Amino acid sequence: MRGAAQELAHTASRRTGPRRWLRATRWLLSAGIHPRANATTLRVAEDLAKRMDYSTGHVRYCLDGTVARLELSRATVKRHIAVLRELGALVWAVHGTKTNIRRTRGLGGYAGTATVYAAAIPPSYDHAMGHEVVGSGYDARIVVHQPSAPEQMSEGSEPPSLTLVEEKGKAEMTGGLKYTPRLRASRKPRNSQSHESAGGQAKAARRSPAQVAREILQTRTVRALVNWTQREPLRKLAFSLRAYFDRGLSAHEIAAELIGLCLTWRPSRPAAYIQAHLRREAHETVARDSAQAAAGDPRSNAAWQEWLALSAPETPTRTDTDRRLARLYSWDQWSEVAEHYAEDPDDALDLYGTRLCVHAVRQASLAER
How many CB atoms lie within 10 A of CB 258? Predict the structure, then answer.
C-alpha cells in the first residue's frame, strides 16, 4: 500500500487492537509478502504493540524512544515502520508537525505535534484466514458466528442454529459451523458399509460435528500456508484433505506435503487435484506392495530383519515428520537443496522429494547463469 492508501481515511485495512494486530503482523512477515520485511521489522512491531492503546489501537511514533529501546539507528526504525505501512498493518492517524503543541495549551517550552499510527489488518490476511468481512476500509468488521444461549432452548427442542454476530475490529473466529439437527444426526446412512476416502483407505461413513469443526480449523491454517489452495472454499478443501487427517497429520505437516506438489504452477481446481494425487498415491502403494510380495521381499523375513538390526550401526532413523518439516522449511532455499543434492543425491531425494530437488537444481542453475 502506497500514498493515500496509508492514511486512516483511505486505507483498505480494518481497525484492530494490539493483540490481534501483532498476531496478524507476524503472519504477514512470515508469509514473505514484503521483500524488505525481516526479524527487525518484527522487533519494531512488538515495541509498537506494547505501547498501543487497547481500545483504539493507536500508538505514538516516538522515534527517539524506539531507537533507544531497540538500539537501532533512526534510519533503520524509519525503514521498518515504512515496511509495516506498505504491508497495510499501520496507517497514519495523525501526521506529526513542528507546531508547538505546548503553546496551544498555554504552556511554556516547545514540543512538536506527535505522529500517531493506528493498528490495522489488511484484506490479504482476512482472505488467507477465510474471514467474512462486512463493510470496507478502516471501519470494516468481520462476521463472528456464535451459537444461541443454551438457556434459550426449550426442553426437548433441537440444538439451535448459529446466530450471526458482527463485531468491529475483531479477528477472533469462534466458529462458523452449523450444529447438525438432532433428527439428522441420528439418521443412519442408507449404506451402512464404510466408504472409501480419496486416499484409498476405509473411513467412517459419517464424521461427528466436533471432528468436522477441528478439521476445518486446521484447513484454515493449511490454506494460509499453501498459496495455491487459497482459491478453494474452506469446506471443500477440508473434505479433500480428510485422508491426511485420517493419518493423524497436523496442519503444518499437511502444508509440507502440499507445498511439494505444485512448485511452479497452480491447479485450477485444488481440491480435485489433491484427491487425484491421493488416489494415485494409494494405487502406487498397493502396486509396490504387491510387487514386493511377489518378488519375495527379504524385508518380510523376521530373522533377516533381526540380523540387520543387530549388525547395523546406531544411526538416527529419518522419519516422515523429518521429511515433512524439511520440505516445509526448505521450499524456497533452492541453493541449499541443490548443494545437498550435489553431495548426496539419494539422501536429498529421500529428504526433499523428487519435485523439490528438480526445481531447486533448475533454480540454482538459473542463478549461476
Answer: 22
